[in-house]
Write a structure and sequence with these properties.
binds 2-acetamido-2-deoxy-beta-D-glucopyranose, alpha+beta, single chain, 14 helices
């Protein structure tokens, strides 16, 4: 998941913990729209000589459902009618638009980042922002071994988001030492091309039908996937999520020993959503997942200073 995803997850946790989740949409989201969407309209206008791009967004003053708010804000979205449709169909109707623009603000990890994203900087920001509040340092978390669909891989879960991001990165082959070229983080065209190929591989293997790609169904699996990654690792989910039926029902999560481990198909579907919404968006995930972790001998996932590349300032 991207920086936005994990950031979203933390804000979700913090909001529930401190009872802030009933902020109005506008107030809550404005503080996270930091990737200067302000400059976007002039940019497009200047470069393409077309009308400024009109992105979707949240209806001003709308108060969302506090339980689903950060992961699926359908009820407050200007394009809410498209949430119940296949993203393949929606994008067919908007061939020149970025899907993160159309669905801007629909979840805390879906914000239109503008036409020229800085992938390396975004990855570093994501890593830093996710250290709060649980990160205690390299290899301070429990060493776990994931068991899922016949494969095993191990990692230190140094922060809550590691349970998902490590397995997701490993599954996508986006970790360092899995073949992805680190230089692509600094070469947007190369990264987006690499991402496009990865997306095509995923679809060749999993062959998602249009009706498996209903936008809101995928959004609603975001936290359940996190729960299912905890399950695959055999570690407990944080209580605030373990007690939330929006998370546990779809995850099939009752306890650390009575739960469903994540399926590759579900991780693939999560990523493929971003592919369909635009290769820039899937490229963001790859950059973030690559920057933070690597595959080490013994099928252990290492992080940061254990890896060949560590982002500056992290
Ligand atoms: C995306 O949505 C956010 C929150 O509603 C808003 O602040 C931002 O301006 C929107 N971005 C674009 C490009 O419209």
């Amino acid at each position: 998941m991207t920086f936005m995803a994990r950031h979203a997850f933390l804000v979700f946790l913090i909001s529930l913990t401190f009872g802030l989740a009933d902020d109005t949409c506008g107030e809550t989201f404005s503080s996270h729209a930091s990737d200067s969407p302000m400059f976007l309209q002039t940019d497009l206008h200047a470069h393409k000589g077309t009308q400024p791009q009109q992105c979707g967004g949240l209806i001003e003053g709308c108060i969302g459902n506090p339980l689903t708010y950060f992961n699926n804000n359908e009820i407050c979205h200007t394009n809410q009618a498209d949430f119940s449709r296949s993203i393949v169909e929606v994008m067919r109707e908007h061939p020149d638009e970025d899907g993160y623009c159309h669905f801007n603000g629909s979840a805390m990890y879906i914000f239109y980042p503008g036409p020229n994203p800085d992938y390396a900087a975004n990855a570093a920001r994501g890593i830093l922002s996710l250290r709060i509040p649980t990160y205690m340092g390299l290899n301070t978390g429990p060493l776990v071994t994931y068991h899922w669909e016949g494969e095993t891989v191990s990692t230190h879960v140094d922060a809550d988001n590691y349970a998902l991001d490590d397995l997701y990165g490993f599954f996508l082959g986006a970790l360092q030492n899995q073949g992805m070229d680190t230089k692509a983080l600094f070469d947007p065209e190369a990264l987006e091309e690499f991402s496009r190929r990865k997306c095509e591989q995923i679809q060749a293997e999993y062959q998602f039908r249009d009706d498996e790609l209903i936008f809101k169904d995928i959004l609603d699996m975001n936290l359940p996937i996190l729960a299912q990654c905890h399950c695959a690792a055999g570690i407990p989910l944080s209580p605030v999520l373990a007690l939330n039926p929006y998370v546990t029902e779809k995850a099939g999560y009752r306890s650390p020993s009575d739960c469903k481990p994540v399926r590759k198909r579900e991780l693939a579907r999560h990523h493929y959503m971003k592919c369909v919404l635009g290769y820039k968006n899937s490229a963001f995930d790859l950059a973030y997942l690559h920057a933070r972790a690597c595959l080490l001998p013994g099928n252990r996932i290492g992080h940061l200073s254990e890896c060949p590349y560590k982002p500056e300032g992290v």
